[in-house]
Amino acid sequence: MSIYDYEVKTIQGETGTLSDYKGKVMLIVNTATKCGFAPQFDGLEKLHQNYKDQGLAILGFPSSQFMNQELDKDADIAEACRINHGVTFPLYSKIDVNGDSAHPLYKYLASQAPGALGTKAIKWNFTKFLVDRGGNVVSRFAPTDTPEKIQSHIEKLL
What we know:
two-stranded antiparallel sheet, Glutaredoxin, alpha+beta, Glutathione peroxidase, peroxidase
């Protein structure tokens, strides 16, 4: 199964797949608005603005699996991201990224780009997966890797 085949639900409740992103470089991030790493939304939005016309797609997947640091309702998440960080990149409905209830997309991402010591579990909010234009997961970045630190990796794929 290709990354483009996974079914996802937008934060507005529309169901689709990632096929709209065929031929684009994707940065897929599990987010949380109440996390200490939430200021990274600003850097992600800057990447989105600077590179969207060159084929970069930033995709945010809110999750509350780490110390319940995400709001309960998708509408509240979208509003917080827009008001507090000016987010205009696509956000998706809140999901689980670990365990039996993990979204299939995240099971796939973790299997394609394991973390430190080969672990597949997502360690915290703002873990980032970089996907090339062919749909291949090429890198996994830790929550502490800011958008600015990974910009050069994105530029190489664009």
